[in-house]
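Regression test case RT-17, inverse folding.

Input:
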């Protein structure tokens, strides 16, 4: 029997973060639903107990059902039968188990059948499911698309669709096309309004659609005749029960093979407008993508956890030259750095999630009543931090995931190249995390404006002002020295306001800020819980070397040197 919640005390550490009481009280509207719903909590302790109970169930199902099925799902994969997806047998068992356990609609309001949980336990469940099978989380985890319906759809649409998600129906977001990958302004799937029956009809092709045959899909389509940019795009809800969409094929991918990545053909498919016309890309997709990026960051952390555990177990069991290979410094260092990267990315994941949850909840409350002045300030600050940290955790977290998967194979040596060990599948699954929902390069594009606006340095100063245990003073001094290098690097790159030069160094600047922020988060974790002390020390030393590398490169570089790197 395995339980991926109970065997990982780091999760409870993040679940009991001091900020959680504020988040839960806001989410529960000061526990006003306790009389209306018998499963609504009466106070903070009651809510936290409910979170733990659900996470224990998610951990048990992840360890006892999803993880054991991962290998067979990877081998069998989904298939297309009569234009629709047939999941692998193991995938169907996984989904059936999680639906029966009530693990759908975790963060949706109770009036639609959801649990009304904070985003933190939902992301935590995604973390565990990803550790078990990274491909399966792309099916179960797409329930977060329902947040977009909850936020922007009409009341009538919410009443029809959200209970279905809570009851176990799956979702998809149909965005990309053969000629519109990251550039969603180029989307050409046509949406036409039929005056006679008052319905919208969709025609065209979508490509690389995760779980493309889900029951309910959010579809980005061109609703304005003759338009060519994002202002002509609207968001639509497609119901598979209405027909009109066929799966042309499932992509044959490197990894996450249990997750069907589909090419879809829309043939006069009936759909409903979600929200207002012309705001599909400008407003709704941006909200959808930010949620998806947080989900991929959770997936990356879960894969990192799996990679670390596989490497650690093998290093402890594998003997060479008369001793376990973990006793060799070269291997021990790899394991230590893997754990530090895992802990750093997880700390950033849950810090980001808390800020997202705070501003989203306050935003929802603002639609029910006017916010107080301090609440409006709190919401704006949380949104700014969430906007800054989301691309950082998706970008750096997915890169750490890939590095940990690589090192897991390396620790296994020749065995790691064989399908006999899970690390081979983990390595293939990890690769996509730095590609989909915006490549690492696109995350840098989103993050660099927070370098120029000062969001990152302001956040770093907030962390710097926090008290840490006295024994961590030397590590804090290292972070302060790293911060000085960050500020000098930013000044050097932005001095001439050369946009191309700033873009050239954007990755380095964002990474420097990320290493400092994650270092401070680990110091805060270690101050609350001494079990994080080793990771804090290892990561800050690692970050110190990375900051020195990047800042030295910037200091010795000038705009004139870019020519060698910009060859056409």
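Golden output:
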């Amino acid at each position: 029997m395995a339980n991926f919640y109970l065997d990982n005390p780091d999760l409870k550490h993040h679940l009991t973060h001091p900020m959680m009481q504020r988040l839960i009280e806001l989410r529960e509207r000061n526990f006003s639903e306790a009389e209306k719903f018998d499963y609504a909590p009466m106070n903070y302790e009651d809510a936290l107990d409910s979170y733990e109970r659900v996470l224990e169930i998610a951990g048990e199902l992840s360890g006892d059902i999803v993880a054991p099925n991962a290998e067979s799902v990877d081998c069998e994969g989904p298939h297309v039968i009569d234009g629709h997806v047939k999941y692998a047998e193991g995938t169907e068992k996984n989904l059936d188990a999680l639906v029966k356990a009530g693990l759908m609609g975790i963060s949706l309001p109770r009036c639609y059948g959801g649990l009304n949980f904070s985003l933190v336990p939902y992301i935590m469940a995604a973390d565990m499911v990803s550790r078990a099978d990274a491909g399966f989380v792309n099916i179960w985890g797409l329930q977060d698309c329902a947040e977009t319906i909850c936020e922007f759809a009409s009341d009538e649409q919410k009443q029809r669709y959200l209970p279905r998600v809570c009851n176990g129906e799956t979702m998809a977001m149909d965005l990309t096309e053969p000629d519109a990958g990251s550039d969603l302004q180029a989307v050409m799937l046509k949406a036409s309004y039929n005056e006679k029956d008052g319905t919208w009809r969709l025609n065209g092709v979508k490509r690389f659609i995760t779980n493309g045959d889900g029951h309910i899909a959010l579809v980005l389509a061109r609703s304005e005749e003759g338009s060519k940019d994002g202002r002509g795009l609207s968001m639509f809800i497609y119901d598979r029960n209405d027909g009109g969409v066929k799966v042309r094929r499932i992509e044959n991918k490197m990894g996450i093979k249990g997750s069907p990545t589909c090419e879809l053909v829309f043939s006069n498919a009936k759909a409903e407008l979600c929200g207002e016309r012309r705001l599909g890309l400008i407003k709704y997709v941006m909200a959808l993508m930010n949620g998806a990026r947080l989900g991929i960051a959770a997936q990356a952390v879960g894969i990192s956890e799996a990679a670390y555990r596989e490497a650690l177990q093998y290093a402890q069991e594998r003997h060479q030259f008369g001793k376990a290979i973990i006793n060799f410094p070269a291997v021990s260092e790899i394991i230590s750095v893997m754990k530090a990267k895992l802990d750093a990315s997880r700390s950033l994941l849950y810090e980001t999630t808390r800020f997202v949850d705070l501003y989203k909840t306050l935003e929802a409350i603002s639609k029910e009543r006017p916010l107080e002045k301090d609440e409006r300030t709190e919401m704006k600050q949380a949104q700014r931090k969430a906007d800054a940290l989301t691309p950082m955790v998706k970008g750096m977290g997915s890169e750490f995931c890939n590095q940990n998967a690589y090192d897991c194979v390396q620790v296994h040596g020749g065995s790691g190249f064989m399908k006999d060990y899970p690390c081979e599948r983990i390595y293939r699954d990890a690769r996509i995390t730095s590609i989909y929902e915006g490549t690492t390069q696109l995350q840098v594009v989103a993050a660099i404006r927070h370098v120029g606006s000062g969001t990152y340095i302001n956040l770093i100063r907030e962390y710097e002002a926090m008290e840490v245990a006295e024994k961590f003073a030397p590590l804090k001094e290292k972070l302060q020295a790293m911060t000085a290098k960050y500020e000098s690097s930013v000044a050097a790159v932005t001095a001439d306001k050369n946009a191309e030069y700033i873009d050239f160094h954007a990755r380095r600047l964002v990474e420097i800020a990320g290493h400092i922020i994650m270092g401070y988060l680990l110091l805060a974790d270690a101050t609350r819980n001494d079990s994080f002390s080793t990771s804090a020390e290892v990561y800050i030393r690692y970050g110190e070397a990375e900051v020195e590398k990047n800042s030295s490169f910037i200091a010795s570089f000038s705009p004139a040197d870019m020519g060698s790197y910009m060859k056409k």
